[in-house]
Write a structure and sequence with these properties.
There is one protein chain. The protein is mainly beta. The chain has 3 domains: 61-192, Immunoglobulin-like; 212-310, Immunoglobulin-like (Sandwich); 319-409, Immunoglobulin-like (Sandwich), CATH 2.60.40. Helix content is 8%, strand content 37%. It has 1 helix and 30 strands. It has one helix spanning 2-33, and strands at 61-65, 70-72, 84-90, 100-104, 112-113, 120-122, 133-134, 140-144, 153-158, 162-163, 170-172, 175-177, 182-185, 190-192, 217-218, 235-242, 254-264, 271-278, 283-291, 296-303, 305-310, 319-323, 326-327, 338-342, 350-355, 361-364, 366-367, 374-377, 390-398, 401-409. The strands form 7 sheets. Strands 15-16-21-18-19-20-17 form a 7-stranded antiparallel β-sheet, with no helix packed on it. A hairpin with a 6-residue loop joins strand 27 (366-367) and strand 28 (374-377). The longest helix is centred in the first third of the chain and has 32 residues, at 2-33.
Length: 411
């Protein structure tokens, strides 16, 4: 009996030793050859940067793939994206009638889908969905499910175009949402390319109205003459940096007096255009550019940075954006007024009025802070007294075109 027990113990020890050796070899292989391995992670249980494809372990299995990695240029227009395929290997009761599938732009990017691009939906589940539509912000393509998906169904989406590609090198992925949270990433990546540039010089338009040392301003990117400047998503970009006498970058610089840059811009007609600056994660309106004569744009720039001159939205909405639609003019320095950013490429006369819920004329908007492009209301009535909190209606008139909406004054 003792011999049998000893043999069993010896056998157990050998097996354990074999397991330890196996794990040690696997661990060494991972670090020495950098082979992909399973780390675990949020959302679908897999690390999307470590595995090229999902290997399901049971339950819901819905994936998305655009079929190829794509390089996107900032000033390359609105690039078309590869056909997206959503594969419902095992929808597990999620893709049912009444569900909305959302293909979303990367959350980390200030991008949106070109709403003028027509999309086509197909695949084995093409007849199980309704008409695709863009969300109000353009950051998602929404596809309503009308018939329950079965195991193995596929849904393809082609024709998507991406606008607002960030001007800095970065890699992200399209996102899939059908349960109310992020459900999956595209298995392939979108990479924004770096910003090209060329050196400025003494005759680059900077030194003619400023001090003589403006000739040190360099590395300004010329606008792409092929950019569709007349389209809503069209933009011409440029970067302004300061090179010190030793040839190094001077970093963040404020110009005094303000620098004036004149650029050739094919397709631009007379008028005024919005100028936006890249703030690290989003674009922010910082000024306006004058167009004239046709094909030439003049921009005043107060600081170094990455800028873009926005195209005109012909026939689009008069109000491009409302800043602080709900505002509280209480002196704390936050949301003190509501600002309306307008589409006014022809620099037409513009005016705005505020009305109470009883349709009484309360106040007139003030021009600014960006002349020709914005109107502001500070919450005060025409006689100067602060208005009561509540919902107010605005009406804006730009060259005879009118629009209206509501704002909320908080107290």
């Amino acid at each position: 009996m003792m011999d049998v027990e000893k043999k069993a113990q010896m056998k157990t020890k050998v097996v354990c030793l074999a397991v330890v050796l196996f794990l040690s070899v696997a661990h060494a292989t991972e670090w020495s050859t950098n082979l992909p391995c399973f780390y675990g992670g949020s959302y679908d249980g897999w690390d999307r940067n470590a595995m090229g494809a999902v290997a399901p372990v049971g339950g819901m299995d819905v994936t998305m793939s655009s079929g190829l990695d794509q390089q996107l240029a900032w000033l390359g227009g609105n690039p078309g994206l590869g056909m997206v395929t959503i594969t419902a290997a095992s929808p597990a009761g999620t893709l049912t009638s009444g569900t909305t599938i959302q293909v979303r732009v990367p959350t980390a990017w200030p991008s949106y889908f070109d709403s003028g691009a027509a999309v086509t939906v197909g695949g084995s589940a093409g007849g199980k969905v309704g008409a695709a539509r863009y969300s109000m912000t353009g950051q998602a393509l929404e596809i309503p499910v009308t018939t329950n998906f079965a195991d193995g169904d596929t849904l393809t989406v082609s024709g998507l175009k991406l606008a607002g590609v960030p001007p800095v090198p970065n890699t992200q992925r399209l996102e899939l949402n059908f349960t109310g949270t992020l459900d999956a990433y595209d298995q392939y990546a979108l990479t924004a390319s770096s910003l090209p540039s060329h050196n400025g010089g003494s005759y680059d338009g900077w030194d003619r109205n400023g001090p003589a040392d403006y000739h040190y301003v360099g590395d300004m990117t010329a606008p792409d003459s092929a950019a569709t400047f007349s389209a809503r998503e069209g933009a011409a970009g440029f970067e302004v940096t300061v090179v010190n006498p030793s040839g190094g970058s001077a970093g963040d610089v404020t110009f005094s007096p303000v620098g004036e840059l004149t650029m050739a811009l094919a397709g631009a007609t007379n008028g005024v255009r919005a100028v936006e600056k890249w703030m690290g994660s989003r674009w922010s309106l910082v000024g306006s550019a004058r167009v004239g004569p046709p094909g030439v744009v003049t921009v005043n720039v107060a600081r170094t940075g990455i800028y873009r001159v926005m195209g005109a939205a012909a026939g689009g909405s008069l109000v491009r954006e409302v800043y602080n639609r709900s505002f509280s003019p209480n002196g704390d320095g936050r949301a003190e007024s509501v600002v309306f950013r307008l589409e006014n490429p022809e620099n037409l006369p513009m005016e705005g009025a505020i009305y109470s819920s009883e349709n009484m004329h309360i106040a007139d908007m003030a021009p600014g802070p960006i002349p020709g492009l914005t109107l502001t209301w500070d919450g005060r009535a025409r006689h100067g007294a602060m208005c009561e909190g509540g919902i107010y209606t605005y009406e804006i008139n730009v060259g005879g075109r009118r629009t209206n909406g509501i704002v909320v004054l908080l107290k």
